[in-house]
Amino acid sequence: MNFLDAIRWDEKGLVPVIAQEQSSGDVLMFAWMNREALQKTAELGRAVYFSRSRNKLWFKGEESGHVQIVHEMRLDCDADVVLLKITQTGHEPGIACHTGRHSCFFSVLKDGHWQSADPVLKDPKTIYQ
To answer: What count of other Cβ atoms lies within 10 Å of the Cβ of residue 6?
Structure first.
């Protein structure tokens, strides 16, 4: 059986994907993949996602240079979530978020309000031109 056939794709043919930094264990981002994106990720050893807003493949770092090198791909027990163990390239420390932060999970709930807990490492205006 092809590894893609083991996945429980949603009604749109997508599977949720979590990108986790291999060295630190930090969860950097959440995205979606379709069959083609997951196949290309496995073939290339770099993260390729499916952009729902653009309705096309999204090679992580194609505009920003912040590529994700994939070391390991894991499937959860229900076969409906993929975990990528990655190295985030392009800036030290790696920038995974389009806001210029290390992780997309930078907001922390404190006293009933979401507050930014992580700094902007690089101005997004200089990343995306």
So the answer is: 9
Q: How far are the Cα atoms of 79, 100, 126 from residue 30, in angstroms, in the given order? A: 16, 16, 23
What the block records as the tokens of 87 is: 């190295």
Cα four-point dihedral sign 87, 91, 95, 101: positive
Segments in the chain below pLDDT 50: none
Half-sphere exposure of 119 (CA within 13 A, CB side): 3
Contact 71, 22 (CB under 8 A): yes
Pick the closest to residue 49 from 28, 22, 25 (CA basis): 28
Q: What is the predicted pLDDT for the residue at 87?
A: 96
Closest to 82 measured CA to CA, from 110, 117, 42: 42
Backbone φ and ψ for 125, nearest 5 degrees, come out as -65, -25
Q: Among candidates 83, 23, 14, which has minimal Cα distance to 53? A: 14
- Type of residue found at 51: S
Structure confidence at residue 65 (pLDDT): 87
Closest CA to 13 of 33, 42, 39: 33
